[in-house]
Amino acid sequence: MAPGSLYLTNLFYTSDKPQASRHTLPQEIANHLFFTFIDNEAGDGTVSLASELRHEAQEEATRLYGYEKSHMDILTTPEMLKTVNGLLDSVR
User: Fold this and answer.
1) Is this structure's pTM higher than 0.90?
2) How many whole angstroms separate alpha carbon 81 and alpha carbon 84?
3) Three-class SS state of 7
4) How does 59-91 read in b/e, with b if 16+ C-beta sit within 10 Å?
5) Which residues of 28-40 are buried (b: 16+ CB within 10 A; e: fewer)?
């Protein structure tokens, strides 16, 4: 997930050309952006904040959720699990 990589570009645009069209999620899909970071580092130990918080992703996000955790620790964080479960319950 290198900043500026072709992979990240293709998530948001039809090509890597300057005039490329944007890919966006349908408006009826709520997009909640979860990201992690480690204090005094530029990311979560695996993925950089530049990749996690790309401006296109933030623009589409219904809400952002940041956790001071490592890339893997987030998977067992009670607060995050409660939030995810609450979001899932809201659409059931």
Assistant:
1) no
2) 5
3) helix
4) ebbeeebebebbeeebeebeebeebeeeeeeee
5) eeeeebbbbbbee
